[in-house]
C-alpha cells in the first residue's frame, strides 16, 4: 500500500455529501470529489488517521485495494484467490467482510461475502497451510465488498465500527437521531458555536452534545477507544498520537449557552447520563419543560430539533405541528429555527412557510429538514428596517 498517496472513500448519509466534502477540504484532503452518499479524496496515512478522528459527517472511511470486472462466480473467485491478502492480513489476525451488492448477476450480498471469505481462506491454505479466523462481531481487520453490476471493488475499512458510534451515548430513548445525521443537520443549519443553542425536544440529547462539540471544535471521535487502522501492519502509533494531540490543542472556548427542553422526565434523565458521558455538564443545561409553554430566553438564539413524527413515535395531539408554528410565531421572535420531519402532511399544519427545505433520511424514513425564520412584525417590515440600516 502506497501510504503517501492513498485513494480514500468516505461514506455518509444522503444529503450530507456537500457538508462532508467541506470538512474533508478543511482537514487537508486533495482532489475531493462528491459522489452519491460518499466523498472521494486523496491523502497520506496521517490524513487517514486525521479524518477518522475528526470528520463529523463520516460514517465509514475506506481504502480501495482492487477493482475488477466479474461476469460469474468463477471469475470472482479466481481474481480474489490470487490477490496477496497477506500484505494486509496476518495469519493470526481475525477478519470480517461487509458486502453491498447491486447486480442482476450476483443478487445476494451474504452469499458473495461467503465466496470472498472462501477465496481468502484458500489463499492462506495454499501458501501457509493455515488460515486466519473470521470474527463477525469484533474483527481486527475489516474488508468491504462492493459489487455494482459487473464491477467489483474490494476495500480496506479503516474505521471499524461505524463512526456514528461516538462513545458517549448510553441511553438512546425511544427514537434517537443518529450522531452523524445530527451533526450534519447542525452544520446545514449554519450552527458554528456563536451565540446560543436550543433543542426544545431534546430526547436523549444527541443534538445538544453534537452542538457542543461543534462549538468547542471537539474532535468527533475523542471518546472512541479503537479504530480498525490500529490493527494494520503499517500502523504508526507515534503519528496517530501526534495527530490527536495537535487536534485537541485546537479546542475553542465557548461563551454561549446550549440548552435542552423535554416534557418527559425520563428523557431528561437519559440526556443527563449522556451529557455526563461526554463530560459536558458545565456546557449543556437541560430541564423538564413543555416547549409549547416556553418563551425565548436567550439572545441571539439558534434552534434545531427532532420532533416526533410518523413511525418513530405516536403523537396523540393532532394539533402538535400547529402548536410548533404557533409557538414559533408568538414566543420566539427574531429566531432562526430548523427541524426535521418525515410527516409531510403534518408539516402543512405548521402555518409558516419554510425558507429552506432539504431532503434527508432518518434511517429509512424520507424526511425534510426545514428552516423557519421568525421576525418580530412582518417579514416585509423586517426587510425594510434592514435596508434602512444599510443605507444609514
From TrEMBL:
Superkingdom to which the source organism belongs: Bacteria
EC number: 2.1.1.-
PROSITE patterns: N6_MTASE, THUMP, UPF0020
Keyword RNA-binding appears in the UniProt entry: yes
InterPro entries, sorted: DNA_methylase_N6_adenine_CS (IPR002052), RlmKL-like_Mtase (IPR000241), RlmKL-like_Mtase_CS (IPR053943), RlmL_1st (IPR054170), SAM-dependent_MTases_sf (IPR029063), THUMP_dom (IPR004114)
Gene3D superfamilies to which the protein is assigned, alphabetical: 3.30.2130.30, Vaccinia Virus protein VP39
GO molecular function: RNA binding; rRNA (guanine-N2-)-methyltransferase activity; rRNA (guanine-N7-)-methyltransferase activity
Domain THUMP, chain residue ranges per copy: 47-158
Major enzyme class: transferase
Annotated Pfam families: RlmL_1st, THUMP, UPF0020
Record key words, sorted: Methyltransferase, RNA-binding, Transferase
Protein name: Putative N6-adenine-specific DNA methylase
Taxon lineage: Bacteria, Pseudomonadati, Bacteroidota, Flavobacteriia, Flavobacteriales
Amino acid at each position: 500500500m502506497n501510504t503517501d498517496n492513498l485513494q480514500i472513500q468516505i461514506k455518509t448519509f444522503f444529503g450530507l455529501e456537500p457538508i462532508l466534502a467541506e470538512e474533508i477540504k478543511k482537514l487537508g484532503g486533495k482532489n475531493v470529489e462528491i459522489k452519491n452518499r460518499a466523498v472521494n479524496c486523496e491523502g497520506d496515512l496521517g490524513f487517514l488517521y486525521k479524518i477518522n478522528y475528526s470528520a463529523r459527517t463520516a460514517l465509514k472511511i475506506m481504502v480501495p485495494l482492487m477493482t475488477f470486472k466479474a461476469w460469474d462466480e468463477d471469475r470472482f473467485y479466481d481474481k480474489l484467490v490470487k490477490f496477496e491478502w497477506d500484505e494486509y492480513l496476518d495469519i493470526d489476525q481475525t477478519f470480517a467482510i461487509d458486502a453491498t451488492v447491486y447486480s442482476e448477476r450476483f443478487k445476494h450480498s451474504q452469499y458473495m461475502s461467503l465466496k470472498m471469505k472462501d477465496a481468502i481462506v484458500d489463499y492462506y491454505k495454499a501458501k501457509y497451510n493455515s488460515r486466519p479466523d473470521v470474527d463477525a462481531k469484533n474483527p481486527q481487520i475489516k474488508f468491504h465488498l462492493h459489487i455494482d453490476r459487473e464491477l467489483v471493488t474490494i476495500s480496506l475499512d479503516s474505521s471499524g465500527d461505524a463512526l456514528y458510534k461516538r462513545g458517549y451515548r448510553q441511553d438512546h430513548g425511544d427514537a434517537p437521531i443518529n450522531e452523524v445525521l445530527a451533526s450534519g443537520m447542525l452544520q446545514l443549519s449554519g450552527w458554528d458555536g456563536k451565540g446560543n443553542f436550543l433543542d426544545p425536544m431534546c430526547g436523549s440529547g444527541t443534538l445538544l452534545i453534537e452542538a457542543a462539540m461543534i462549538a468547542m471544535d471537539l474532535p468527533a471521535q475523542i471518546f472512541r477507544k479503537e479504530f480498525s487502522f490500529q490493527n494494520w501492519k503499517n500502523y504508526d502509533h507515534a503519528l496517530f498520537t501526534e495527530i490527536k494531540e495537535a487536534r485537541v490543542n485546537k479546542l475553542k472556548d465557548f461563551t454561549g449557552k446550549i440548552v435542552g427542553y423535554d416534557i418527559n422526565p425520563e428523557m431528561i434523565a437519559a440526556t443527563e447520563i449522556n451529557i455526563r458521558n461526554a463530560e459536558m455538564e458545565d456546557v449543556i443545561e437541560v430541564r423538564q419543560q413543555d416547549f409549547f409553554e416556553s418563551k425565548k430566553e436567550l439572545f441571539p438564539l439558534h434552534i434545531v430539533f427532532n420532533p416526533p413524527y410518523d413511525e418513530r413515535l405516536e403523537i396523540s395531539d393532532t394539533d402538535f405541528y400547529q402548536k410548533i408554528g404557533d409557538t414559533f410565531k408568538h414566543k420566539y421572535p427574531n429566531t432562526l429555527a430548523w427541524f426535521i420531519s418525515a410527516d409531510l402532511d403534518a408539516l402543512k399544519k405548521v402555518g409558516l412557510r419554510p425558507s429552506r427545505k432539504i431532503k434527508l433520511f432518518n434511517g429509512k424514513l424520507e424526511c425534510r429538514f426545514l428552516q423557519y425564520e421568525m421576525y418580530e412584525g412582518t417579514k416585509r417590515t423586517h426587510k425594510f428596517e434592514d435596508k434602512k440600516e444599510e443605507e444609514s
